[in-house]
Amino acid sequence: MKILFIHQNFPGQYLRLALYLQDQGGHEILGIGETGNIRNRSIPRGVCVRGYAAPGDSGPGVHHYLRDTERAVRRGQNVARALLSLREKGYLPDVISVHPGWGEGLFVRDVFPRVPILMYCEFFFTAEGGDVGFDPEFPSTLDGRFSLRIRNAVQLISLPTADAFISPTAWQRSRYPPLLRREIRELHDGIDTEFMRPDPEAALAIVPLSTPGESRIARGAPEGSPSPPVLVLRPGDRTITYVARNLEPYRGIHSFLRALPEVQRRYPDCHALLAGADGISYSPLLPGAQTYKAKYLAELEGRLDLSRIHFLGRVSYADLRRIFQVSAVHVYLTYPFVLSWSALEAMACGCLLLASRTAPVEEAVTHGENGILVDFFRREELVQALDTVLRDPRAFAHLRAEARRTIVSRYRLAACLERQTTLLRDLAAGSLAEKY
User: Which residues sit opposite 128 in a β-bridge?
Assistant: First the structure.
């Protein structure tokens, strides 16, 4: 097949699928993404990539509801220009897979009117039952709700031009309007359970830095240099782990940090590892470019033992696995929003997952069977659950084993990739079944 993937951060969600198709052989794969983004991405071997210019910002006279929409239209135009250039050189794909969330899918049908299009339905914004208004610390406003409705306009224009649709989870699919929802197939990207797996012999060496609370994962020191103090953590140690792309309220950083003082008081030998950047992916911007980490550390100043808290920043995929493998308990807190791959990867590593009782999590985790669920906002419930686990981590071995079984049975990468490939092949052949 000749397959075209379009994603502003290519490869994005298409990384493993592009690798799988390339390994299969017999496919010609082209990825299109924003030039500045793809320059900093690891591109799958053998995959050709073309960039398009970043869209310009909207002018000062544009209504604030429409700023994101105008930027999306500009992005869609830039994608269309890149596609027209390819078409003029004789390029014609057999099937196109595109993420429509940022406007890239707006004009694809106009450039390639007879090519089947698959769209990735990641999230549809709603004012009720989702992330908006969930957290009382960040209340929604009527103006914000109006803006949110307009924000969906780009998807609502793009989606009717597609031939098929997928969402990675049932909950994400459920966010879409009923008319669209019944056309969306639930199809997860997949979790690499061969790589993400338990290792009872794992060890993670942490080097505390000069700034209290900041640490790095140890690397080999140059020969002859003094060895820094190193903390080595292994399975069985009282290690609490927390992972997010960015440390922000959408992923419960405030709830987690506020619970730590009491947990540290009860367990003087526990250590907390936090992996993630200091930026913002989804939460509101703070005044003066303040980070949420700085905000909550200032709030808890004098109450946290920073010598036992280790902010690691962004970590490699291999280091992420080791973090999970040495974890006594992995805390995953989230608004009703996109379920993080990291939570499922932690389960694949046999982590004891202590997660928020929110709808996206409940799709994968059943309390007392393959994990522990607590109220996102009830600090005392989170503290008590951590206390129970840290008192005797071995008592939860059955939950750890069942967590991995859940991921292998429902999200195993090879099975998910096979289903994705079958869908693309059927689309390209014009033989897509009505039911899936």
Answer: none
- Do 12 and 160 lie in one domain? The reply is yes
Q: Is residue 434 part of a domain?
A: no
d(CA 174, CA 180) in angstroms, rounded, equals: 10
What tokens appear for 367 in the block?
């309390």
Q: Pairing state of beta strands 95-98 and 48-52?
A: unpaired
Give residue 434's pLDDT band: very low, low, confident or very high (50, 70, 90): low
Distance CA 195, CA 131 (A): 31
Report the percent of the chain where pLDDT is more than 90: 90
Reported as a single tens digit per residue, the pLDDT across 278-323 is: 999 999 999 888 999 999 999 999 999 999 999 999 999 999 999 9
Domain count, the chain: 2
243-257: pLDDT as tens digits: 999 999 999 999 999
Domain that holds residue 101: 2-190+413-429
CA-closest candidate to residue 86, choices 121, 38, 40, 50:
50
23 is a domain residue? yes
- 158 exposed, middle or buried (CB, 10 Å; 0-12, 13-18, 19+)? buried
Distances (CA, A) of 98 to 92, 397, 433: 15, 41, 20
Q: What distance in Å separates the CA atoms of residue 190 and residue 415, rounded to the nearest whole number?
A: 8
Structure tokens at 406: 């859940």
First to last CA, the chain: 21
d(CA 403, CA 396): 11
35 in the same domain as 126: yes
CATH number, domain at 287? 3.40.50.2000
The closest of 388, 397, 405, 2 to 191, measured between CA atoms, is 405
The answer to pTM > 0.85 is yes
Distance CA 368, CA 246 (A): 29
Chain centre to alpha carbon of residue 212: 28
Beta-strand runs (E) in 299-404: 309-313, 329-332, 353-356, 372-374
Apex CA 163: angle with CA 88 and CA 414, to 5°?
Answer: 100
> What does pLDDT average to over the chain?
94
Asked if 234 contacts 265 with a C-beta cutoff of 8 angstroms, the reply is: no
Q: Is residue 421 part of a domain?
A: yes
- pLDDT for 28 beyond 50: yes
| Element spanning 81, H or E | helix 67-88
- Tokens coding 227: 């060895």
